[in-house]
Amino acid sequence: MNLMKSRLRILHLEDNKYDSDLVQAILSAEAIDCDVVRVETRSDFLAAVEQGGFDIFLTDYTLPSFDGVSALAIVQEKCPEVPFIFVTGTLGEEIAIETLKSGATDYVLKERLSRLAPTLRRALREAEERSERKRISAELEQARQRELQMRDEFLSHVSHELRSPLFAIYQFTTILLDGLAGELNPEQLEYLKIALKNVNQLQTMIEDLLEISRIQVGKLSVEPKPISLTNIIDETLSSFHEIAAAKGITLSADFPSELPSAYGDPQRIRQILTNLVENGIKFTPENGMIKVGVQVSNEEPNFLCVSVSDNGCGISSDDTEMIFGRLYQAKNTVEASRKGLGIGLYICKDLVSRHGGRIWVESQIRQGSTFFFTLPIFSPRSLLASLLTTENLLKGLVGLIAVEIFTPEKHPLTRTNETVLPEVRTIVERSILPFQGLLVHETDTKWGETLLVVTCADQRGVEIIVQRIQEQLAHYKDSCNADFDSAVSFTMIDIPSGINNKPLEQVVRDVANIIEDMIKAKYSQKGVIKCLREKSS
Amino acid sequence: MSKRKILIVEDDQDVLLGLSIRLKASGYSVVSATDAAWATTVARKEKPDLAIVDLGLPGGNGFLVIERLRSIMDVHIPIIVLTAWDPTINKERAFKAGVEAFFQKPVDNDEFLAAIHKALGKSG
């Protein structure tokens, strides 16, 4: 222990030299080997604390030019782990309790200095124990992180090693299925299709393994932006069209005509939906039905609630909590005998909570299950508020610029999409001066991308921005031989009259609503997803 | 028009055979190399129209092959990466090296063929 190991260094905040000498004498009488440094002003105290190296602080409560409570605040900021003891003649019971509450280690009254040595010993012992506990828990945490890291690397390694043989199996199965090695009879075809189905399952499991490892080491990322859930639901359902049809299962979607944008990561939300719909199909008998719905949550008006219902085998009430745990698998169900690692819902739960939402299930045995999850509603007002200041609004007009990029038949993984769209985004962002505009960006159709910019300028100003964007895009196209077409257009938005008489918040709300309505009216029929993104200036 | 020639750089013999069958069935002619050093020799001799490159290769990784192909070919041919390696780490690097597309194994046949078709269409 510190006390035994070396000579203690004590900082004593005390205006009375005799009191300090007394303290020192008592401590040496108690065989506490120490150096006591006495200070009595704020600047000396601060300098000593900053210099560091003290094992304990003893302070008087009131001093001519400083006080013990301020000293405590300094210590708590600079070195909270060092024990801090009031040694004072003027501490009433109430104040004493207050000081302890505000973080002092202990107090000793000057008329009972015999208590000083035991108090000091105890304080030091406790500080030692605290720091030991802290060190151990830091070590444990480090070890845990190291182990997770190693497991992540191992899992990552294994799952990548699994990919090549899996790919070879896929290749030759499809070579046979496609008749590239000669005609097959119907029975052979059927068996190969079973093999292919299992290849796909195995691939999903590999992805899941990687995902769960990412969750544990905190590598799984969520990049939320404003998105239209209806599009994502439509896309997800259509990707299951064939599989559902093969089982005679009807897939349907149900959402109100007006639905606010959600704030989420489109890829992750697609992943959640895919998981839930896949589960639904797995546990729903032939000719069953799966319905996906979305609406503004009844309980939480700032959230959208998505539901995925099936009329399958249902989940017993004992299991409804457990299914979101890791490695859970439905028991006693023939259908679920071998269909995955049982981590799909665990991943879903993690992803939903990373969006700030929650996920749960309501179910009745043999009647079916409905999975619900919530996602926050995106409000463009908060974004637009930074742009629509009184000053900007008083300039009169607000413009909406649309930059449409067409990339015909581009595959999502090709170089064009990967590099052109971010480039275009950068070009558009650079063409708007800070505080002049916000990039309001839409995404996610396979054929094109529209970037929307809300600007605060008069018509001439907006025209200049449009021209600048056009020139920059043309320059980029030529210099990089990029393969896309673009169209830039704009609309002016009238600011409601009499804004001077209304509170600014109200005006921002009005204008934001007008802009939202315009974006909706103009672009939602095309089935695009609207995205507002704050211009990074 | 003569068949377009594709160079496959792939050390896994089974995957290589599978790819060759698939590509030949789609009307391409195929040449191959199973390591980084051989890849350049084959490319120099055969003058392929497109290369499919694996990243994990004996004798230097696929990035080296991409670099060498770029420097020895008179005409820049499109290069497609097909690898088991993690795209989160390697995809950006591959695009910076100028590859046309990046696929992680296993890849869907139709998607892969579409990317080849498109890459060849662009290079004329």
Give a brief rundown of this model.
By secondary structure, chain A is α/β, with parallel strands linked by helices. In chain A, 49% of the residues lie in helices and 19% in strands.
Number of strands of chain A: 16
Mean pLDDT of chain B: 90
Count of strand segments of chain B: 5
Characterize the largest beta sheet of chain A: strand count, sense, and whether it forms a barrel.
Answer: 5 strands, parallel
Q: What portion of residues of chain A belong to β-strands?
A: 15-25%
Helical amount among residues of chain B, as a percent range? Answer: 40-55%
Largest interface: A-B, 27 and 28 residues
Contiguous runs where pLDDT drops below 50 for at least 5 residues of chain B: none
Helix/strand class of chain A: alpha/beta
Coarse structural class of chain B:
alpha/beta
Spatial shape of chain B: globular
The whole-angstrom Rg of chain B is: 13 Å
Q: Please, what is the oligomeric state?
A: heterodimer
Measured distance between first and last alpha carbons of chain A: 55 Å
Instruction: Give me the Rg of chain A, rounded.
Output: 34 Å
Spatial order of the strands forming the largest sheet of chain B: 2-1-3-4-5
CA(first)-CA(last) distance of chain B: 12 Å
Instruction: Quickly count the helices of chain A.
Output: 17
